C-alpha cells in the first residue's frame, strides 16, 4: 500500500481558510494509485486501438510487405564515406572553377577596354543609371541618365524585373553622377556587356555578375532598378564590400591611433569616431587590429587587449564600436608614445605567427602633429618601411598638414584631410588603393572567395538566399602607370549556396546525414544548423550570421578536432556522439556520427559529410524496368523533392520551367537529349515508384468504403521514400482539412528539402520498427495552430540493424478525434460488476498522455495541450528524472539572440554610416546647448522629460550564448509508480508506456499540489561570462589558415602618390636626410 497525505480546507470564523493536514489510514489508499493495473489496462486499450487506426489508414503493413517481396532483387551496400566526400568535393571544384573562369573573362575584357581608352575630361556620355532608369519628370520626359530601360520578371533571378541584355550602373548617393572620372569609367566598361551576356550563355546557372570600380560606380548584370531606402538614400558603395576589399588587398595587421587630446572635443571627436568606424568596415576576417586612444597616456579602447591584436571578425568589430562611445577629449596629445606602442605591438604580434604575416599599417587619426617623429620611424621602420603609415587630419585647419603628410609619404602610406562627416568614407577608401599597389605591380590576379552572406536583392522574409562571391582584381595595363600600381576595380559573380547543395546526393547521406562546408577561418559556408535569421516582429538578419564557427554548431567536439582538421585542409574521418535537435529545437536525437572531410581545391573551402551510424551507413539498389517505373510515376499524387537535383534544369533556359518530376519523365522518354540527370538516383526513384504504387489503390479503397461513423477523424495518409518520392491521399475534401499547410511547400519541416528529410520521417526512423511516433504542434491549446496529431512509422527492408530505412508512412488525424479515443479507453475497467474503483473522471486524479520528449498530447485541461509536462507537473517530472524514467540532456545554442538592456546616451553610437553620424553631430550640438543653459541656470523652462529620454533604456536583441534542457524517455522503462514527499502531503503517480508508440499515460494524484517543487521549464538561459572570462574569449584565437597569397610590398612601388593638397617640397629634405644618415651609418 502507498501512504498518501491529503489536504483539506476548512474555514475559520471570519472567513479565513485554514489548511488541515492529515494522513489517510493505510487501509484506505487514494483511488488514483491503488494499483497500476487499471492504468496498464487503459494504456493497452488505447495503444491497441490507435495503432490499429494508424496502421490501417497509413497502409504500413502493405508497404512493408511490398518491399519484402523485392528483397531478393535488392543489393545492400555500405557507404564509403571517404570516397563519397572526395567525389562531392570534385564536383564542387568543377562547379566553382566554371564560376571563376567566367570572372577571369571579365578581367581580361575590362583590362583590354581600359588599355584602349584615353581619358577625356570633357566626355559626355548618357549611361543607364540604375536609380534613375525609367524615371520621368513632371512633364513626362525621361530624366537625364534615366532613359527607358526594359525590365521583365525572370524566375532565375527570383522573379525580379531585370534586363538580361544589358547591365546598368549604380553610383553612391554621395558622389556626382557625371563626374568625369565616373563618366570615363562607365564608358570604357560598357564593353563588359558582351562578356556578361556571353558568360550567361555559356553557364546559364550564373546569376549576378558585376564590376566594382575603384572610382565608386558599380556595373551590374543583368540590369535592375535600384530603389532608395525609407530615408531616400542608397548607401551601397561597392568599395567597402568584402569581395572588393579581399580581391583588392592582401591580409593586414592594423593599429588605429586616435587622438583624444582636448583639441579633439566636439565635432572633431565625432568625425574621428566615424573615421575609425569606417576603417573597421574595411577590415575582414583575414585581418587583425587594435585601437588605441592617446593623450598624455595610452588608453586601449578595449583594456583587455592591451599589447596585442585581435581578428577583425564581425563580433570583435562591433565590440570595439560599442567602446568607441566611451572616448572623450581631454589633456594634450603625446603622439610619440602612441607611435612607439603601435610599432612594438605590430612587431611582437608578428613574431607570434598569429596575425596576417603580410601587410602592416598604422592609422593615425588626429587634428595635428607638432613634429614628424622621424627618429621613431628611423628606429622601427626604415629603410624597409614594412609598416605603412596612413594619416587622417581631422578638421578644416591645415597648420599641421605638412607634418602628417610627410609621415605618410616617408612610410609608403597616404595622407588625407577629413573636414566633414560626408568626407569620411571616400577618404578612408584611399588606403585600400595604396595597399593594392604591390598586387597590381605583380599583376597577380588572385581569385578570392567570400564567406556566406545573404542576397541583398531580396527582403529577409523572402529568403534567406545565402551566397558566396568569387572575385578578381582588375589592373591598369598602361605602361606609364605600372609603377603607380593603379587598381581599376574588382569583378565578381555571386554563387548561391543552394548551387553547392545541388551537387550533393541527399539520398546517399541517409535520413540524418548531411553535408557542410567551412571557410579557411572555420566559418560555416553551409550547414543545416546555420540559422542566419531571427524574428522580432519580422524576420531580421543576425548581426554575426556570416561568422558562425563550425564549433558553434558541432559543439560536442570540445577539442575542435574536426574543425581544425578541416581548416588545415586535411582528408580524413572523425567520429563522435552528437545531440541533434529537431522540431524547432524542442526535441533531441542522440546518435553517433561519422564525419568524413576533405578540401575543395581552388577555393578556401573544406567539405564535410556526416553519416549517422546504423541504418544511415547503408544504401540499397533496386531494379525495375523503365517502362514499369514510368507508368507508376504518372500517378497524379506522386511528387518529388523540389530541392533535390534529379536532373540539372539550370543548364539550358528552356528547361528552367520544368519541375524535377517533369524533367525525369522527359529524360526517360528520350524527348530532351540535352537534359543531364543522375541515372543512379532515377533508377532508385523508379524502383520506389513501382514498389509503393499499390498503396494508391489501397488508400482509394479505404476512402470508398469508409462509413459515415468509422474513424472520420483521419484526414490524410502519406508516404515518403529514401529517394524523395512522396505520395499523399486525402480522406476528406481539401477544403475540410484541419491543417491546410501540411506537406505544402511552406511547411519546410515536413517535406523533403536540400538539408533534411521530413520531421515525421526522421523521428519514425529512430522508433522501434513496427511502432508509430505521434506528435502535435507545440502549445496547441493556447495558440491558434492546426489541432492535429501526426502519426508515422518507418519501413525497413530487412529485419536487422544494417537494414536501410527505405520509407516512412503515416497519417494525420484531428486532435479531438485522437483525444476522444484516449478518454474512451481510460473509462474501461476489468471488474466483473462493471464498476471501476478509479477513473480519470475522478476529481482526485489527473490523467495525461505525454510523448517521449515530455510534451502533453492529452490533458483534462485542454489549454495544456502541447505544453511540456514538467511545467504542469514539476514534482512528478522531477521524480521521473530521479528514477531514470526520463533523462535531461543539456543543449547549447551559440546562435541565440537575447534581450539586453542598453543605455542610450548622447554619444556617437550608430557610427555605421555618415547619415547616422550626422545625426550624432546634431545631438552633440544640442548637448552643448543644454550644458550652456545649465551653466547659466536658464533651463527651468526646459521640459523635465528631455534628459530622462536622453538616457532611456532601450531593449534590443543581441547575439548571445544560451543553454537549455531537452528530455528523452528511457526506452527500457515500460511502467513505474512512485511517491513524492512534499511539505504537507505526499503525491503519488503511475506512468505506463502506450504499446507500439512513443507515448506514455501518466496518472497523478491531484489532491496534493506539491507547490514546494518548482516547475521544470525548457526556457533557454543566457550564459553570462564574467569580465575575466570575456577577456579570455576575446584573446582566444582558434586555428585558422591564412590565404595562400600575400602582396605586402614591391620594390618598384612609387610611394610619391601619397596624399592631397599640402605642399611637400619643403619637406623633401626631411624625407631624404634621415635615409642618408642611415645609409652612411651602416
Which percent range fits the helix content?
25-40%
Catalogue the unreliable spans.
1-33, 903-917, 927-955, 1062-1082
Please state the structural category: alpha+beta
What is the total tally of β strands?
Answer: 44
Global mean pLDDT: 87
DSSP summary: helix tally: 29
Give the radius of gyration.
35 Å
Task: Record keyword descriptors for this entry.
about 1100 residues; alpha+beta; Beta-Lactamase; 6 domains; 7-stranded antiparallel β-sheet; 7-stranded mixed β-sheet; 44 strands; globular; disordered N terminus; disordered C terminus
Brief synopsis:
Keywords: Calcium, Calcium channel, Calcium transport, Disulfide bond, Glycoprotein, Ion channel, Ion transport, Membrane, Metal-binding, Signal, Transmembrane, Transmembrane helix, Transport, Voltage-gated channel. This protein has 1082 residues and is α+β, with helices and mostly antiparallel strands. Helices cover 29% and strands 25% of the residues.
Topology summary:
Layout: E1 5-11, E2 17-23, H1 37-58, H2 60-69, E3 75-78, H3 81-116, E4 152-154, E5 160-163, E6 168-170, H4 180-189, H5 192-202, E7 209-213, E8 218-221, E9 223-224, H6 242-248, E10 252-259, H7 267-281, E11 288-294, E12 298-300, E13 310-311, H8 314-324, H9 335-352, E14 359-366, H10 374-380, E15 387-394, H11 401-409, E16 414-418, H12 424-428, H13 430-435, H14 437-442, E17 448-449, E18 453-454, E19 466-475, E20 487-496, H15 497-502, H16 506-509, E21 514-518, E22 524-526, E23 533-536, E24 538-541, H17 561-567, E25 572-582, E26 587-599, E27 606-612, E28 618-621, H18 626-633, E29 638-639, E30 647-648, H19 660-668, E31 676-677, H20 679-692, H21 694-705, E32 714-721, E33 726-730, H22 759-765, E34 773-775, E35 788-796, E36 805-814, H23 815-825, E37 845-851, E38 856-859, H24 869-872, H25 874-883, E39 886-903, H26 914-935, H27 945-950, E40 953-969, E41 975-981, E42 986-993, E43 999-1005, E44 1021-1022, H28 1027-1035, H29 1068-1081
Parallel strand pairs: 10-11, 10-14, 14-15, 15-16
Antiparallel strand pairs: 1-2, 3-28, 4-5, 5-9, 6-8, 7-8, 7-20, 11-12, 11-13, 17-19, 18-19, 19-20, 21-22, 21-27, 23-24, 25-26, 26-27, 29-33, 30-31, 32-33, 32-36, 34-35, 35-36, 37-38, 37-43, 39-40, 40-44, 41-42, 42-43
